[in-house]
Amino acid sequence: MTGLGDRLKEARMAKGYTLSDLQSITKIQKRYLSGIENEDYTMMPGSFYVRAFIKQYADAVGLDADEMLALYKESPESALPDEEEQQIASTNLSRRNSGKRSNQLNEVMPKIIVALFIIVILLVLWFLTLNNPSKKQELNVGTDEQIKVEDQQKQGDGKTSGNDVQDKTSDNDAVDDTDDTDTDADKDQDQTEQSLTHVNVAGENSTYSLTGTEKFTLEIRTNGDSWIGVRDRAGEERMPKPRGADTFGAGDSIELDVSDTDYVRIRVGRTASTEIYVNGELLEYASDRTTQNIIIEKEQ
Q: Residue 48: helix, strand or coil by DSSP?
């Protein structure tokens, strides 16, 4: 025993909290809280969750989270469970086997980005060609000349026939229809295609670039236990209260609209159990890490 459980329990009782009160505050199940106080971590889903729960417990009762985590590291239970050790060993082996493939992808990625820019430029030129302003000018000039001729005939004859009025109305309607078509084409020109591109991997951080859209929504689904937290550039937690950052179970999902920011960091405790959709598009993990940070930056 390291004294960690006793320290936490004494601080809880000094605050006047029961385990039920603490469960409501931290959203951690009571059996996990009791296990931490007894320094019995056998029922925990993994060492990552033990550290996360200890930090939340310490913050809730006013203790130094780093000091409590240091006490936990002194305990023999701080070692990773066998399942996680096997998974990490497997990940290291897979990373060695796929090292060359990752390097090749990093070399090709800049070329792909350049090619996408070229395609966008060609599409813009194509739309501009379809909506050539000179055609509108020719149509307007022809209409003006016709009106002048009809005005001269009106002055010579002293009256305008009903057929002439009908012809003018038809010509004006044709011009209006052309303007409506041009407006629809302009709207189509303003629309660009969304692109979610992997940029790099640095330790636990995998960075992605989101371009071609003003919309920025996230949908996170889990088919097993996984710790989920979402923060913006200012470090503010974007998961809705009262749940906040928490452990998700099989069948859980959440949707977030983060269009008011251009940066999010998604903390994923177990990638094998977690799917992330960005504006409806499934994000493909670029790293084999079990626990990692997914960083998405939206280009303006």
A: helix
Per-residue pLDDT tens for 147-159? 555 666 655 555 4
Q: Give per-residue pLDDT as tens, 267-288.
A: 989 999 999 999 999 999 999 9
* Burial group, residue 36, by CB count within 10 angstroms (0-12, 13-18, 19+): buried
The class of domain 4-79 in CATH terms is mainly alpha
Q: How many H-runs (helices) and E-runs (strands) does the chain carry?
A: 9, 10
Tokens in use for 213? Answer: 């859209």
Domain coordinates of the chain in residue numbers? 4-79, 131-190, 193-298
Cα–Cα distance between 105 and 206 in angstroms, integer? 14
Return the CA Rg of the chain: 32
Check residue 46 and give left, alpha or beta (phi > 0: left; psi -120 to 50: alpha).
Answer: left
- With b for 16 or more beta-carbon neighbours within 10 A and e for fewer, the 69-83 pattern comes to bebbeebeeeeebee
What the block records as the tokens of 232 is: 């913006």
Decide if 215 contacts 241 (C-beta within 8 A).
no
Task: Give the C-alpha separation, 79 to 216, whole Å.
Answer: 39
Q: How long a stretch of residues is the chain? A: 300
- The neighbour count for residue 25, using CB atoms within 10 Å, is 16
> What are the residues facing 222 on neighbouring strands?
274
Query: Model-level pTM greater than 0.90?
Result: no
Q: Say if strands 205-211 and 292-298 run parallel, antiparallel, or are unpaired.
A: parallel
C-alpha span between 250 and 289 (Å, rounded): 20
Give 112-166 as a 3 state SS string. Answer: HHHHHHHHHHHHHHHHHHHCCHHHHHHHHHHHHHHHHHHHHHHHHHCCCCHHHHH
* pLDDT (tens digit per residue) in 198-221: 999 999 999 999 998 989 999 999
Report the phi/psi class of residue 208: left, alpha or beta, with left for phi > 0 and alpha for psi in -120 to 50. Answer: beta
